[in-house]
Amino acid sequence: MHKKWLDLAPFLGCVLLALVCGYLLGRLITERRTLVSVPMQMRDVSRPLVPTVRVEGVVNGQLKGSMVGSARLFLDGTQVMSDQSGAFLVPAGSLLTNKIEITVPSGMRFVASRRGKKYYPVDSASASNLAPSNRVYFRTAEEAERAGYRK
């Protein structure tokens, strides 16, 4: 039995040597990788990468929201400035104004609504209240009256 172990000794020695060499080689490679400096960049994960403007809505005539990052917001040509937390509250006057531009066809002096019964001069306050999609134009007051409208 003692002879049997002696016959296996060279084989077991080679296996043990291979294991030790493998272990040491693995440690050497691992240590070398940690010694090589890899450039790393740190960033604040609490801030998004994209500058963002978040508008919450209009509250009591004030535009309320927040800005994150290097975002910039302009309202009527003026830059909106936020506080240190990024929140802003500015007058929303220009956002609440409904601007409708109506082009009056050339030569037309009177206007009426398809749904109404009266006609008005195109430059009057009553004419400015007519919906653009319902407008009917006339060159003369007589033309409007022949179409069934009255003054």
Structure, briefly:
The protein has 151 residues and is of the alpha+beta class. The chain folds into three domains: 1-36; 52-94, no CATH class; 110-146, no CATH class. It has four helices and eight strands, in the order αβββββαββαβα.
Q: How does the SSE layout of this entry go?
A:
Layout: H1 2-35, E1 52-59, E2 62-68, E3 73-75, E4 78-80, E5 87-91, H2 93-96, E6 110-113, E7 119-121, H3 125-128, E8 135-138, H4 141-146
**Straight-line N-to-C gap:** 130 Å
How large is the share of residues in beta strands?
15-25%
Number of helices: 4
Query: In the residues, how many domains can be counted?
Result: 3
- Strand/helix succession: HEEEEEHEEHEH
* Low-confidence runs: none
Structural class by SSE content: alpha+beta
Mind describing the biggest β-sheet? 3 strands, antiparallel
As a percent range, the share of helical residues equals 25-40%
Please provide a written account of the structure.
The chain has 151 residues and is an alpha+beta fold. The protein has 3 domains: 1-36; 52-94, no CATH class; 110-146, no CATH class. It has 4 helices and 8 strands; from the N terminus they run αβββββαββαβα. The chain has helices at 2-35, 93-96, 125-128, 141-146, and strands at 52-59, 62-68, 73-75, 78-80, 87-91, 110-113, 119-121, 135-138. The strands form 3 sheets. A 3-stranded antiparallel β-sheet has the order 1-2-5, with no helix packed on it. β3 and β4 form a beta hairpin. The radius of gyration is 41 Å and the shape is rod-shaped. The protein starts with a helix and ends in a 5-residue tail after the last helix. The model has no long low-confidence stretch (mean pLDDT 83).
